[in-house]
Amino acid sequence: MRSFYEVSSNILYNYIHSICNFLSVAQKINTRHFPTNFKFGVANAATQIEGGWDEDGKGETIWDHFAHYHPEKISDGSSPDVACDSYHKYKEDVALVKAMGLDYYRLSIAWSRILPTGYTNQVNQAGVDYYNKVFAELKANGIEPMVTLFHWDLPQPLEDELGGWLNIETANLFAEYAKLYYELFGDVVKIWLTINEPKQVCQLGYGTGGFAPGVVSNGVGEYVCAYNVILAHAKAYHIYDDDFRATQGGRVSMVIDTTWYEPGSESEEDKEASERILQFSVSYIHVDLKFVLSIRVIG
Question: What processes in GO biological process is this protein linked to (predicted)?
C-alpha cells in the first residue's frame, strides 16, 4: 500500500485547489445537520505542503534526506523540495480554508525550520517569523490554528548523531523543543498536538524501513522508538501543564491512529484473531502511553 507521502504532493495540491475553487463558487460546507458547537477543520503536515526545504536557514529533515538519497523508495520520485509551495503560498491556503467555511486549520511546525540542527541553542529567526505570519493570516480570517509539534520530520542531525527515536535523548530534546514553541507561539496557539501517529513513525520508520529514516530492525526498533516517542509526548505534556497552562489556557494531546479489524465470522477463532491483530496494531503504543503518563515527568 502506498503511503500518502508517496503520492505527488503537486497533484494533491491541484486536486485540493479544484475542490476548493468549486466550493467557493457553489457553497460552503453544509453544516446545518451538525450541532452548533461542532467545529470543522482541515489538516496538513509541513513536509507534505511547505516546500522551501532549505530556504531561509531551514535545516535538513529525515524526509528531505530520505527523498534525496533514496528516491527509489518513493513510488513517483517526488520530494519535499517544493511540495505545495505553501512556504510562499500560505495566504492562498488560508483563503481556501476560509472559502470552505472551516473553523480550524491544523498545521505542523517543521522542527528544523526553527531549529536547523534540532537543538534549541540555534534558533532560526526566519522560521519563527514565517509561522508568526501564518498565525496572523489565520487570525485575520477568523480561523483558529491547531499545531502539531512533530509530524514525522525529525531533523537529520539528530538521526545522524543520536540514532533518532532509537535514542532516549531525542525525547529530552523534543521536550526542550516543545517548551520553546510554547514560549514562542503559546499566546496564539491554544490547541497543541505533540506527536502525529506514533505507530507510523515507529513501525514504518524504525521497523520495516518503509518511511524515513528507513531503519529496518525486524521489529525491535519500533518498540524502542514507541517508548521514546511516548516519553517525549509525556514530557511535553507535563511541561505545558506545569509552566504554561495557567497563563496560556491551552490544551495538549496527541494523534493516535489505528487500523480497525472485525472477525470474518462469528466463530471464536475469528474473534480471537481479530482481537489479536488489534492488540498488535495499537496496544504497544497504548501500553507505553499508560505507563509513561502514570509517572511524574519533569521537563
Answer: carbohydrate metabolic process
Q: What is the CATH number of the domain that holds 160?
A: 3.20.20.80
pTM above 0.85, yes or no: no
Tell me the CA distances in angstroms from 168 to 93, 120, 173, 186, 298, one per residue in order.
Answer: 37, 17, 9, 26, 15
In a domain, 35, yes or no: no
Which residues, in sequence order, are CB contacts of 78 under 8 Å at separation 6+? 6, 7, 8, 9, 10, 67
Distance, CA of 18 to CA of 12 (rounded, Å) = 10
Res 28: pLDDT: 67
Report how many domains make up the chain. 1
Residue 207 lies in a domain: yes
Give the residue numbers spanning the domain of 141.
4-28+40-293
Q: Is 22 a member of any domain?
A: yes
Q: Which residues of the chain have pLDDT under 50?
A: 1-27, 287-299
